Amino acid sequence: MTQSVRIAGGQGFWGDWLEAPWRQITGGPVDFLMMDYLAEVTMSIMQKQKSRDSSLGYAKDFIPLMERLLPELVARKVRVTTNAGGVNPHACATAVAEVARRLGFAGKLTIGVVTGDDLLGRVDALLSAGHELRNLDTGRPLRDVRDRLQSVNAYLGAAPVVEALRRGADIVITGRVTDTGLTLGPMMHAFGWAPDAWDRVAAGTVAGHTIECGAQCSGGNCLVDWERIPDLANVGYPIAEAYPDGTVDIIKHPGTGGRITVAGVTEQLVYEMGDPHSYITPDGIADFTTIQLRQAGKDRVRMSGIRGRPATDSLKVSAAYFYGYKAVGTLVYAWPDALKKAKAADRILRQRLDDLGLKFETILTEFVGVDATHGPLAAREIEATDVPEVQLRIGVRAAERAPVERFTREIAPLILNGPPSVTGFAGGRPKPEEIVAYWPALIDKTQVQACVDLVAV
Amino acid sequence: MRRPRRSVTRRPRVRRIRLVDIAHARSGDKGDTANVGLIAKRPADYALLERYATAARVARHFKGMIRGPVERFELPNLHALNFLLHGALDGGGTISLKTDAQGKVFSTALLRMVIEVRA
Question: What is the ipTM of this complex?
Answer without folding.
Answer: 0.95
